[in-house]
Structures are given as structure tokens and as C-alpha cells.
Design a protein that fits this description.
Shape: globular
Helix content: 25-40%
Number of domains: 1
CATH superfamily: DsrEFH-like
Strand order of the largest sheet: 4-3-2-1-5
CATH class: Alpha Beta
CATH topology: Hypothetical Protein Ychn, Chain: A
Number of helices: 4
Number of strands: 5
Largest sheet: 5 strands, parallel
Order of helices and strands: EHEHEHEHE
Strand content: 15-25%
CATH architecture: 3-Layer(aba) Sandwich
Radius of gyration: 13 Å
Length: 112
């Protein structure tokens, strides 16, 4: 995952059952946080911003990644749309310009 940015476009991984998708996403980040090489950043957009709130078990894994130096960013437009600014427990609010800057520098892995 070195030199990569994860674009997290959903609060679940894959299409289908929501509970299954949330569980799979949590497993992904649980395993990722144990790796030596971590991504540079995780940019959350659309319903991906919910993963940075207490309502998502994924937030626990993301907070641990943040503690290890992975930058967690939440799309401001999406945070405003879903009205979750006061619910964020990890990361910081950012804009699409910062994501574009990251994407021009690092390889992007999209999870949706």
C-alpha cells in the first residue's frame, strides 16, 4: 500500500447486503492496519464519510490507521450533504482539490 491513496466511496465494500458489505470493509481495514506499509491517505466521499462517524465500526480501524500516520480526509461537500460534521470521530474535512493533488502524486485505490 506504500505510495497509495485509498478513495473510499461507500460505507460498505461491494454491492449486495449492507451488513455483509460493512463487515467486509471492516475486515479490509482491520487487516490493512496490521501491515508494515500503509497508504498515504484515505479520502472518504459520498457515503464513505459515514465510516468516520461513531455509527460505523470501521471508524475504530480508521482511527488506528490515523494514529499510525495515515491521513484521513472527509469530502466537505459530502459531509455537508449528509450533515455529519459534528459526528466525525476521526479524520479532518477536506476538499476535492486536496484529493486531486493526492491523486496526481500517488496511485489511487478505489473502494466502493
Amino acid at each position: 500500500m506504500k505510495n497509495k491513496v485509498i478513495l473510499l466511496a461507500s460505507d460498505q465494500l461491494g454491492k449486495g447486503d449492507k451488513d455483509l458489505g460493512e463487515g467486509v470493509l471492516e475486515t479490509f481495514f482491520t487487516i490493512l492496519k496490521q501491515k508494515e506499509e500503509l497508504p498515504v491517505a484515505v479520502f472518504c466521499m459520498n457515503t464513505g464519510v459515514f465510516t468516520l462517524t461513531e455509527r460505523s465500526l470501521v471508524s475504530l480501524q480508521l482511527k488506528e490507521l490515523e494514529a499510525k500516520g495515515v491521513e484521513l480526509l472527509a469530502c466537505k461537500t459530502c459531509v455537508d450533504y449528509y450533515e455529519v460534521e459534528n459526528q466525525l470521530v476521526a479524520g479532518k474535512i477536506s476538499g476535492m482539490a486536496q484529493f486531486i493533488e493526492l491523486a496526481s502524486t500517488y496511485e489511487v485505490l478505489t473502494l466502493s
